[in-house]
Amino acid sequence: MKRAHHRHTGHWRLAAAVLGLALLVVAEAAAAQVYKWKDEHGVTHYGDTPPAHVKSDILKTDRPAPARAPVLPYELARAVQAAPVVLYTTARCDGCDQGRALLRARGIPFSERTVNTGEDQQQLERANGGKSELPLLLVGNRKIAGFQAAAWQDALSAAAYPKQKMLPPSYEFAAPVPAAGTAASGVSNPGVSTSSAPPTPPVRGQLRMPPDDAAAQAADQQPRNRSSATSGTPPTNQVH
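Above: the chain's sequence. Below: its structure in token form.
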């Protein structure tokens, strides 16, 4: 009897799980539908939630459901956060093609910056200390100019990137973008420190006062200065 009871309980749990999954699929499908209806004044409305008491029509939509970004394995995600990889490339560059292929073969998520204009060239030189050699690989703060397979592999391993490809099957590499475009949009390049200079410490002994308080203090000191000048006694500086 106990075995039969456990078997029936397991069937009920399985049925409940299947029903829950089916309801979730139906809810997602309903959320992607668009309805059309008219109110009592004859005005046409569109939306995903029509009034319950109004007849509505379901419109077909070609908009696909938003795809969820694949989740990276923990080891790979940690390396990407600690030392993001950026690759500077240009057209008709064998070293650039080889470097891109190496990163993809090892399964390294990276951002590609293309250098095709004068503005792109300036951004490349800023990222590489005034040099313009391509390809340029940035692994966190480490920079490697020119394609050097062994050096690139060592830099990735030193940044704790997995040696074997671990990307999910559904992962898609980001499309290349112009190097100057990233600077104009305010996107910082990994490896280029924007806070190398320490903040300037405040100057001691200088106290800025609001305009009204400063004017009042100046007006209050004028009679004292005049009386000091009349008596021949030098004015006394007071620290407020």
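The helical segments are 2-31, 74-82, 94-106, 118-127, 149-158, 179-184, 211-231.
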